[in-house]
Amino acid sequence: MANEPGPHTLDAEAVRTWSSLALAALGRAREDIDAINVYPVADADTGTNLYLTAEAADRALTEAFEKAASEVTEGTTGTTSLSEAVRAYAHGALIGARGNSGTILAQLLRGVADVLGAENADNTENAERTGDAAADRDRDRASGPLLARALTRAAEEAYQAVAHPVEGTMLTVAGAAARAGAAVGAAAATAADVAGAAYDGARAALAETPGQLAALSRAGVVDAGGCGLVAVLGALWQALSGEAPAEEPVRGRAVPVPSTPQPCAEEQGGPGYEVIYLLEASEEAVGELRERLDGLGDSLVVVGGDGLWNVHVHVDDPGAAVEAGVVAGRPYRIRITHFGDERRRAKAPRAQRAVVAVVPGEGLAALCGEAGATTVLARPGEAPAVTELVDAVARAHAREVILLAGSVELRAAAGAAAERARADGVRVAVIPTRSAVQGLAALAVHDPDASFDEDVVAMTAAAGATRYAELAVAEARSFTSAGICQAGDVLGLIDGDVAVIGSGLSETAEAVLERMLGSGGELVTLVLGPEVPDTLAAHLEAYVQHGHLAVDTVTYRGGRWSAPLLIGVE
User: Rounded to two decimals, what is the model's pTM?
Assistant: First the structure.
């Protein structure tokens, strides 16, 4: 099967494998790369920015494969070509590029796509026009020399994208990788041979970066962006050769880490803000934009082409940088970061995992807070906004966050907050709790020592296994699923629907409990509102014990703004 795609062939599937391996490698190295980030600004985010850029690229590539698979028609295979794969990969990186390093990575991938995509699109057209069986078999396969040319183009375009290239950085590593690949690619080498040579060349160049850049030498570290690029090139070689790199040079703090805190942008005397945005503009307008932004600040990188660009610059006047984009075309997805804020947050130790819970009552907030959760208070008629939830995730200051939505109405806001937090590099899972008692059940089984996925599954299962009820007072005459209620009636809602209408809190609660326990249960949770006497809790506990000897009861105070009574049955 010599003509079948194998470990030495660069085709669409190899690009997909490369992407997933690169994302995994950057995920493992992310914290270590963040730790050695001292240039151009010591803001401890290079690893995170590279990871988020690779994640966006991987997502776009996956969508391209899924789209191709869904468009299978008579006479088509539903497969993705190499040209489509590399272009989708590069476009995803362009759209999702973060920070100086992520922007440069996006341009490197675009350079690869410019060569591989154009060459293989031509091969595909020729094969379809001539009907040549051999050409058809060989389309979507890039030879070693072709990959070498792609790596060379990538380095050239990356240097051109940076207004003032500095040696000892990610650019140096890219250039060394390209030269090493070209030296091998001049012969009849496989793509795997070229990738392996590029990887070795990049590693050697990375080790030399402290001698090329004073900031790295003083801190005793290699370049952070270069570390990330080595991980990406190692993934390329692994995808093509089928062999794992002998070592991961950026894992387990195998590179030196600064022993003293590095100064932030203001302390270094540099601009105080990072400005990033996508821009729809002509190439001529972008040329003028480069000149204008170059006069406003430093670390200017503009990547892209064909009318869509990603602009990155460090400035003291972020408004002027955005205004320059408006003059050039249409800027959007504008992101402005103050380096001082980022550095202060980076100095504080970040927890591995945290829980953020939306709760309807001050007493519940205190209870969840004692359990270690960051809380957001939901007042009657005032659902928390997305920005409040995003702020709570930021206050949790963790790499992983489990968000307990608290009610059906807040699911959309919780989902939007999670998306925004993910864009900041936080792994977030939303557990769609529908009541505070489900949140308490989930929080009770939270295990920070378990894996993230295991913890989410266990908490979701605990919440789902908890039936919930709420007692409320009717404000007016109304039709309900249990009949007509009058103003002042006590309504017993089970799983969100009115199931019982009573005249008093105690009798209605008994009726609700009887219905809920009729299908079994081991634990009853009662959450009392601020005006409900303790005697009601004692009465209901006795009621449960009398009819269900094996069922335990726990009682909490919901505090101000909580409902008269919440009931949970597990």
Answer: 0.61
